[in-house]
Amino acid sequence: MFDAVIVGAGFAGLYMLHRLRGLGLTARVYEAGKGVGGTWYWNRYPGARCDVESMDYSYSFSDELQQEWRWSERYSAQPEILRYANHVADRFDLRKDIHFETRVTSAVFEEATARWAVETDQGDRATARFCIMATGCLSDAQIPDLKGLDSFAGKWYHTGKWPHEGVDFTGRRVGVIGTGSSAIQSIPLIAKQASHLYVFQRTPNFSMPAQNAPLDPEYERRVKESYADFRRQARESRVGFVTERSGDSALAVPAEEREREYEKRWRRGGLGFSAAYTDLLISKEANDTAARFFREKIRAIVRDSAVADLLCPQSYPLGTKRLCVDTGYYDTFNRDNVTLVDVRKTAIEAITSKGVRVDGVEYAVDDLVFATGFDAMTGALLNIDIRGRGSRKLSAEWAGGPRTYLGLTVEGFPNLFMITGPGSPSVLSNMIVSIEQHVDWIADCVSHLRERGLGTIEATAAAQEAWVQHVNEVGHMTLYPLAPSWYMGANIPGKPRVFMPYIGGVGVYRQKCDEVAAKGYEGFALGR
Ligand code: NA7
Fold first, then answer.
1. Closest C-alpha to 360, from 341, 336, 337, 339
2. Do 399 and 209 form a contact (C-beta atoms < 8 A)?
3. Geometric angle at alpha carbon 133, from 129 and 139, rounded to 5°
4. Would you place residue 198 in the very low, low, confident or very high pLDDT band (cuts 50, 70, 90)?
5. Ligand 1 pocket: which of 158, 202, 357, 377 to mutate (most atoms within 8 A of CB)
6. Among 207, 283, 348, 438, whose Cα sits 20 to 30 Å from the Cα of 391?
7. How far is the CA of 204 from the centre of ligand 1 (A)?
8. Is any ligand 1 atom within 6 A of the Cβ of residue 322?
9. Strands 367-370 and 173-177: what pairing?
10. Atom 29 (ligand 1): residue with closest C-alpha?
């Protein structure tokens, strides 16, 4: 019997454990991997890198930690972030409460005792007052259901489950399926090794140059000197890191000025581009000005105009599928050993023993890389058989799309918390900022219950309904629903089309959560 079971030992699970320990509570963490780090444990593909800057993408909860840790680049690569996660686990002595290589299979709320009973694939059974899902938003890797994969004679990989020993593609013919973030990061590096690389593209993406570089020691010094203020600004910002925001509409400024602004942001690199004007994600006409700028950039980089055309996104507004950040992606298509294959007009017909067949043509490859993404935001949660009051199944409650109160809790599932769940800013933000906010809110909530001798907290149906509506309403004030993105569940056949994250902004959302707590957990029923 524990105070809490935490599922997952990525950045969310690690900090949650640390906070609960600080409250003198007992917790058991179950983690499917052999080590800590979550996303950064699994996604070891070549070029895997965070596209939030290193000084922002790190924990703020310990000043000693943030002062002593040194990042080497503006954007950290996966091995360095994984080293950081391991450092945190060691520094705060977290491993002793984590059971590795153990996947949680079910979590059932037992009404008589008001306890969660959690079972794992290793036969563990633990009970706890609180069950905290730190299962990640992009952790359920997806292989599309393509005919013939069983017959493929070569080796195949998914970017989100990359072999720990790495893969040497030297002299091999390689196929990459997908052109999302993971593909865009890995393709330039795979192309340098492979004898030939075929890229199978269904939908082109907008990608910004990272302009990555060694971390400027002067910048590091300045941030470290004022880290408290730097973090505060991030917490109050829209997306969890500070970026130069304009207060103008893209349509209110002269075209030349707009071009200069876009050019400045392109040269600076990274995700801040969408903040160039207030209406880029609200007005299609404003968005078109930015999309045109990107397409011109692509055409200026890629020499073959037919290939450039194929690489230009046309079917959705810029930023409504996750903007990508790359190093040399478009230029890779100028290499003689790289072929872009359009699988939009004609989908992949089959995987054969020798390669990939599209429109009657067989592209022979030795290795296949699936950069085909994840069942985002709900996949990892619904892979667990989660049952609340009256054995209500979470999968049934969410059959029409996820329904939560604040993206933290679900009506009918007392004492169950989700860290960065659907209905919270999560994937639209700097994940570490959102993780810390949720963990702190949950820890404060647990303390509140304990101090008052209360045993349970549960969202009311009315509060949940109002929150679902609010999330929907603000989502639909933007252009996001126009794209068939993983934000909308559109990458998974049969998944309900619902805009899952909360787009109200990290700062605004934090205030709402704080107000709920300050009003004695408004919208929740508290029980003995
Ligand atoms: P994404 O962004 O979901 O990308 C997956 C890619 O795989 C995308 O280009 C898909 O095309 C493509 N895909 C998926 N299924 C198929 C089939 N059947 N045929 C052809 N192409 C297919 O995943 P990532 O791992 O790159 O990135 C996930 C997030 O991690 C990213 O947004 C960052 O936040 C970090 P589609 O666009 O669906 O046409």
1. 341
2. no
3. 160
4. very high
5. 202
6. 438
7. 10
8. yes
9. parallel
10. 181
